[in-house]
Design brief:
With 418 residues, this protein is an alpha/beta fold. The chain is 38% helix and 16% strand. The protein has 2 domains: 256 residues, 3-Layer(aba) Sandwich (Aspartate Aminotransferase, domain 2); 113 residues, Aspartate Aminotransferase, domain 1, CATH 3.90.1150.10. It has a 7-stranded mixed beta sheet, sandwiched between helices. The chain has a 4-stranded antiparallel beta sheet with strand order 13-14-17-16, covered by helices on one side. The structure holds 4'-deoxy-4'-aminopyridoxal-5'-phosphate.
Length: 418
């Protein structure tokens, strides 16, 4: 029994009452993006209908109102992750941009030839490809924490992997492709012991469990608004105070400067120094509304609900023959994500069949192609849960999977028959 009033929550999300191919929508693709409650949609409408204007430089009422609400939303982001200040709460487009910002600024001044960046074998492309560029351009070396057979991090060789040459440990808190929760706090301590910094990709954790940057001890935390009930196009990069104070600007232009001459410029205060040009005002304010909504539910309760639903799913999936579920068996070590594979059928075919029943899941490499190679699968199918999902929806998924798998098992080579 969940402590969330899921039926009441569902009424806050207009999209959940729609049908797909004449069937009620069962939305289980939350790791890709979440749905939006009415209060978030309303915040966008209120901004554009009520006080749309540019921020920070206006002397008129609308601009001051917009500035106030934009900065209030930033404060909500800071409070949500336990940041003691807003100086290091930089508003960006998404997790990807947040990580690129670190790679283009901090890494340029702090990583040199022969230095090492320690990643894991389960990283999203967003937390891999930017570091490949740093490695290529600056002569750094990428190292990878391998996986155990249960797809958790294998920390047995950490003494070699994390050493005096390591400048940065960058890893995901919760894997979008496996569901695994990584021990980021312990890895942060270990990183700091060798003088390295730690970047946590919080795209799949900040929306789903209580994340406190001070308790976690991370230097950088990246996350996206659209996965936490907020709009697309807005994300956050948190940077620890002592680090952000010494970081060079990323994009340059209006708003990020204090004084400009024809040949030089000085930088604005933090965090505006990292927000060149007109920012995404509307979506920032709406992200603030999403955070208010999550706070009203309580992140501990959100996590409890996801543990209950994930346990229910893990149990139900055991009834599915020949289906491999990735990630640890212990629900305490996983987020609300079930990534699975059955050699009888390509995940895309499975996704397409489920779609006809109104069930939205993800099928593909989940932006983790090296991980798929490691797992030895072309892709996986993935169901991912959030506050509005019910155990009944999990049962609908599992029943549909049973039927689909029976059907595909009869057809040769796992391809659909005529
Ligand atoms: N990291 C992880 C773990 C993710 O799940 C995602 C989104 N799938 C990202 C990074 C990238 O997020 P965004 O597309 O919002 O930049």
């Amino acid at each position: 029994m969940s402590m969330l009033d899921v039926e009441a929550i569902r009424k806050d999300f207009p999209i959940l009452s729609r049908q797909v191919y004449g069937k009620p929508l069962v939305y289980l693709d939350n790791a890709a993006t979440s749905q939006k409650p009415r209060c978030v949609i309303q915040a966008l409408v209120e901004y554009y209908e009520g006080y749309n204007s540019n921020i920070h430089r206006g002397v008129h009422a609308l601009s001051m109102e917009a500035t106030e609400r934009y900065e209030a939303a930033r404060q909500k982001c800071a409070d949500f992750i336990g940041s003691p200040s807003t100086d290091g709460v930089i508003l960006v487009r998404n997790t990807t941009e947040a990580i690129n910002l670190v790679a283009r600024t901090w890494a340029r001044s702090n990583i040199g030839p022969g230095d090492e960046i320690l990643l894991t074998e389960m990283e999203h492309h967003s937390n891999l490809v930017p570091w490949q560029q740093v490695a290529q351009e600056q002569g750094a070396v990428l190292r990878f924490i391998p996986l155990t057979p249960e797809q958790t991090l294998d920390l047995s060789d950490m003494d070699r992997l994390l050493n005096s040459r390591t400048r940065l440990v960058a890893l995901t808190h919760v894997s979008n492709a496996l569901g695994t929760i990584n021990p980021v706090k312990e890895l942060g301590r270990a990183a700091h012991r060798v003088g390295a910094r730690i970047l946590v990709d919080g795209a799949q954790s900040v929306p789903h469990l209580k994340v406190d940057v001070q308790d976690m001890g991370c230097d950088f935390l990246a996350f996206s608004g659209h996965k936490m009930l907020g709009p697309t196009g807005i994300g956050v990069l948190y940077v620890k105070q002592e680090v952000v104070e010494r970081m060079e600007p990323f994009l340059r232009g209006g708003d990020m400067v204090r004084e400009v001459w024809y040949d030089k410029a000085t930088w604005n205060d933090l965090p505006m120094r990292f927000e060149a040009g007109t920012p995404n005002i509307a979506d920032t304010i709406a992200l603030g509304a999403a955070i208010d909504y999550l706070q009203s539910l309580g992140m501990e309760v959100v996590r409890e609900h996801e543990i209950a639903i994930t346990q229910h799913a893990l149990d139900a999936f055991q009834e599915l023959e020949r289906v491999q579920v990735f990630g640890p068996g212990d629900v305490a070590q996983r987020g609300g994500i079930i990534s699975f594979f059955c050699s009888d059928v390509h995940p895309h075919d499975l996704g397409t069949v489920l779609d006809r029943e109104g069930i939205a899941i993800r099928a593909g490499h989940h932006c983790a192609m090296p991980l798929m190679r490691k797992l030895g699968v072309p892709a996986t199918a993935r169901a991912s849960f959030y506050v509005y999902n019910t155990e009944e929806e999990v049962d609908i998924l599992v029943d549909a999977l049973k039927r689909a798998l029976r059907y595909f098992a009869r057809t040769p080579n796992g391809t659909r028959g005529g």
